Amino acid sequence: MIGKRITYRTADGIRVRGTWRHAFIRNGDYFLTDLFIYADGLVDCWGLVTLEEFEEKLRTGWVATALPDGARASAHDLASWKFGEPRMWHTPEQLLGEVRDTIDQLNGRPDSTERCLAAADAFLADRTEEKRAAARDAYLAIPETSRRYALGDMDNKDWPLRVLVTGPGGCLDGQPQPVTQEAYDRAVAYFEERAEWAAARASRVPADGPETAVAPAIHLYQSYPHRPSESPGTDALRNDYPAPVEADGATYPSVAHAYWALSTADARVRTSIAAADRGAAARALAVEAPRREGWEQVRTAVMTALLRAKFAHHPDLAEILLATGDATLVYDDADSAYWGDHGGRGRNWAGRLLELVRSELHAARAGLGQVI
Questions:
Q1: In degrees rounded to 5, what are phi and psi of residue 146?
Q2: What is the secondary structure of 103-156 as a DSSP string?
Q3: Confidence bin at 211 (pLDDT 50/70/90)
Q4: How many CA atoms lie within 13 A of 18 on its CB side?
Q5: What average pLDDT does the structure give for the chain?
Q6: Could you tell me what percentage of the chain is helix, strand and coil, using 3-state DSSP and rounding each to the nearest 5?
Q7: Are 249 and 235 in contact (CB under 8 A)?
Q8: C-alpha angle with apex 249: 244 to 250, nearest 5 degrees?
Q9: Are 18 and 5 in contact (CB under 8 A)?
Q10: Contact (Cβ atoms closer than 8 angstroms) between residue 148 and residue 158
Q11: Taking 90 as the threshold, does the pLDDT of residue 56 lie above it?
Q12: Do the strands 29-38 and 72-75 form a parallel or antiparallel pair, or are they unpaired?
């Protein structure tokens, strides 16, 4: 149920993970709203309640699972209407079961579907009636609305699982006919093929390498270097680290100097920026000058070019960048949420561009520099 719908609430200074789904609240009329479900078991249905209190809200119809024909309903600031032959997909028990599963998912615990599949695997490994009964009980514990998705197979839906836990000659879920031996054998074969497929998938190595960085993130903390160091560490990756670069026919003490000089078309200010003792002073001078027209649209390209120039002309600093491996580079910038990470709220473009240039340096070493 969670999918990509993730939200958070803050409780005692701690972020509690959550998700949401649509629901109807009955408060006189019916109101289409969002039901927020959180990892700590609280549910927001026009007010935070515990899971037990939520169950009572379902029982009393405050969270509606039945909609009478002709009842008035509305969605805030969107529309209002009357129901005509409404049909709901959930009973109170089914919706409560889905909410319980969601809380398990938010906590990384097995939900009812995963518990059922584990019980089915246990039965397949030891095919006793006791194990089959446990798997059948686990299947019936899945909310009925979720059972068809248990195998993640929209062609067969839950048919193989239902047949497996029922067994030859048995009936389950109001089936009109008992399970035949042939149907049961097909279900067993389905699970055997599924296990082989899962094992092959787990051992498959992506042809293009891992999808995510394999090294821990590196935090490039705010610093104000005044002169080069023999062992600068990752401070050398900062834009204001003293490493002269050429840009537009002039030489600047650092990437930061060059960036701020190029941000203005005022030649006198650019000269002053080139003479500034630190990157922070260069920025202060640029702030007082008018920005170059369209600067916001070109600034990322300008920074990319300056970083390429920096590491091309300073091989020792390029080695420091290459030594960061595949790490995510988190760049501090107290003055800019565009260039800096800002505690996860900024765009971190300075860090991202460093990662791009690092990849280009690797490509050049692999003999691919001319290709790209």
A1: -105, -10
A2: HHHHTT---HHHHHHHHHHHHHHS--HHHHHHHHHHHHHS-HHHHTTTTS-TTT
A3: low
A4: 21
A5: 93
A6: 45, 15, 40
A7: no
A8: 40
A9: no
A10: yes
A11: yes
A12: parallel
Residue pair 54/93 in contact (Cβ under 8 Å)? The answer is: no
Of 238, 325, 241, 229, nearest to 278 by C-alpha is 241
Residue 94 falls in which region: left (phi positive, over 0), alpha (psi -120 to 50) or beta:
alpha
- To the nearest 10 degrees (0 to 180), the angle between helices 295-313 and 349-365 is 40
| Residue whose pair of structure tokens reads 């080695």 in the numeric block | 319
| pLDDT of res. 208 | 75
Residue 185 has φ and ψ, to the nearest 5°, of -65, -40
- At residue 225, the pLDDT reads 78
CA-CA distance, 166 to 113, in Å (whole number)? 17
Looking at residue 4, the DSSP 8-state letter turns out to be T
Strand, coil or helix: 74: strand
290 DSSP assignment: P
State how far the Cα of 127 lies from the Cα of 314, in Å rounded to an integer: 68
Print burial letters for 318-357: b (CB count within 10 Å at least 16), e (below 16). Answer: bebbeebeebbbbbbbeeeeebbbbeeebbbbbbbbbbeb
Residue type, 60: T
What letter does residue 329 receive in the DSSP assignment? E
The pLDDT-based confidence of 323 (bands split at 50, 70, 90) is very high
18, 106 contact by CB (below 8 A): yes
Tens of pLDDT, residue by residue over 214-267, are 678 999 999 887 788 889 999 999 999 999 999 999 999 999 999 999 999 999
- pTM of this prediction? 0.64
- Nearest Cα to Cα of residue 43 among 111, 107, 102: 102
CB 110 within 8 A of CB 104: yes
Helix spans in the chain (H)? 51-60, 92-106, 112-125, 129-141, 144-147, 159-166, 181-203, 255-262, 267-275, 279-287, 295-313, 315-322, 349-365
